[in-house]
Design brief:
Number of strands: 20
Oligomer: single chain
Strand order of the largest sheet: 13-12-9-10-11-14-19-17
CATH class of the largest domain: Alpha Beta
Largest sheet: 8 strands, antiparallel
Number of domains: 3
Number of helices: 15
CATH superfamily of the largest domain: ATP-grasp fold, B domain
Low-confidence stretches: 3-16
Structural class: alpha+beta
CATH architecture of the largest domain: 2-Layer Sandwich
Helix content: 25-40%
Length: 469
């Protein structure tokens, strides 16, 4: 159980002035490294924290660091971290005024955001109506188009009838991709290269969408071969101030799951960055968006296309924190809890080059030794410690290794050095593979698309199947 510390006693000092914290205590409705990250931001703001945990996470680091901790159920997330009423009740019992959803789980769940608001708590994120709009990819595409952001050719509505789908695909032109209107992460997604595949793929994508998101609607858009995946980091106060903290390149992915992120993107020039940013600012300002958010694009050559908005903080936010110097979690909390966002949109300047490697557990187990890397421009965000257990029930991400240097070449050298220092014993991780990616000739050259990992994996394992990690 966490320590029983007094909450909200220190003061934070925006602009060097001593100020009362905007709220006394925040419940963190999440686990793992993101919960640890939020606790640290709250402590610097003088805000008390309450952690929630399943029985599998009883000895997790976020439980140890929080001022209070409340068990919310057994290991399965469907019986703990996804039970909305339990989370709200935990906030009530811990005397919290606000709830931070973190990433994943219920972070983009409009129903949860509405429940939080209706029960008198502050939801640290955009309004539920905004989450609903942006969570529906069909409506989000329409909204982005209104603000001058180009979208890939696609169906204007969700489609379920095979005949209508075929008409739409013919108009768009093959290959096409079927996507879940309410989804993400590669679920409810199918690439279709010809008419003969369309009917079956439509049915499969619909079933996956229903199973994963309780919403079987799908839509069709043109499939771009081997594009770059680029996203803008936004922070906004809901009152018209929208700051763009540069872009991140998230092209290196395995099965639509990001592995390496960097900022800036080697594929984005100054004019493209300007056009992306102007459209994003107009859109977020019009929506009265509050908090941290990310707008994602596909880039092919000198063209870019709106893909989606993640109405929450992203796993890879430390990359943008390094290049912009802005504490994104701090500003998110201030913007959503009645404090004033300290970031001046007109004063944001980005510099240097940042890289993040996601360290994933390939097996559950107990960490018997942890040697974290250090040194200049090196950051290790994790919930691991020697002796901690990594349970089998949740996302495989256990750490994020992030570096910053004056340019890409130095950042790559720094990441290679940091990965060589990282030692995690007792569980298997993808550290060695990440080091091979960082040293891969194509990756170092900077000219690649979303097929990079397939090519990389095939070269690593010639004549065999793609590597598991």
């Amino acid at each position: 159980m966490a320590k029983k510390l007094s909450a909200g006693s220190p003061s934070y000092r925006p602009g060097g002035r001593e100020t009362k914290p905007p709220v006394r205590r925040i419940l963190i409705a999440n686990r793992g490294e993101i919960a640890v990250r939020i606790i640290r931001a709250c402590r610097e703001l003088g805000i008390g924290t309450a952690a929630v945990y399943s029985t599998a996470d009883r000895d997790s680091l976020h439980v140890k660091l929080a001022d209070r901790a409340i068990c919310i159920g057994p290991p399965p997330s469907s019986q703990s971290y996804l039970v909305k009423s339990n989370l709200v009740m935990a906030a009530f019992h811990a005397g919290c005024e606000a709830i931070h959803p973190g990433v994943g789980f219920l972070s983009e769940n409009a129903e949860f955001a509405r429940l939080v608001r209706d029960r008198g708590f502050i939801f640290i994120g955009p309004d539920p109506e905004v989450i609903e709009l942006l969570g529906d990819k069909v409506r989000a595409r329409e909204t982005a188009g209104r603000f001058g952001l180009p979208v890939t050719p696609g169906t204007e509505e969700a489609v379920s009838d095979p005949a209508l789908a075929l008409d739409g695909a013919r108009r768009i032109g093959f290959p096409v991709i079927i996507k879940a209107a309410a989804g993400g992460g590669g679920r409810g997604m199918r690439i279709v290269r010809g008419e003969a595949e369309l009917g079956e793929s439509l049915a499969i994508a619909g079933r996956e969408a229903e199973s994963n998101f309780a919403d079987g609607r799908v839509f069709i858009e043109r499939y771009l071969e081997n594009p770059r995946h680029v996203e803008l980091q936004i922070i906004a106060d809901g009152e018209g101030r929208v700051a763009v903290l540069g872009e991140r390149d998230c092209t290196v992915q395995r099965n639509h799951q990001k592995l390496v992120e960097e900022s800036p993107s080697p594929a984005v020039n100054g004019e493209m960055r300007r056009l992306m940013s102007e459209g994003a600012v107009k859109m977020f300002r019009e929506l009265k968006y509050r908090g941290a958010g990310t707008i994602e694009f596909l880039v092919q050559g000198d063209k870019f296309y709106f893909m989606e908005v993640n109405a929450r903080v992203q796993v890879e936010h430390p990359v943008s924190e390094f290049t912009s110097g802005v504490d994104i979690i701090r500003q998110q909390i201030l913007a959503c809890t009645g404090g004033r966002m300290e970031t001046d949109p007109g004063a944001v300047r980005t510099g240097g080059w940042a890289l993040e490697c996601r360290i994933n557990a390939l097996s559950p187990g107990r960490v018997t030794r942890l040697d974290a890397p250090g040194g200049p421009g090196t950051r290790f965000d994790s919930f691991l410690y020697t002796g901690c257990a990594v349970p089998p029930y949740y996302d495989s991400l256990v750490a994020k290794l992030v570096v910053h240097a004056p340019d890409r070449g130095q950042a790559l050298a720094r990441m290679d050095r940091a990965l060589s220092e990282l030692n995690i014993e007792g569980i298997k991780t993808n550290r060695d593979e990440q080091r091979r990616i960082i040293n891969d000739g194509i990756f170092r050259g900077g000219d690649f698309g979303t097929s990079f990992y397939e090519i990389f994996s095939a070269r690593q394992n010639p004549g065999g199947h793609a590597a598991a990690q």
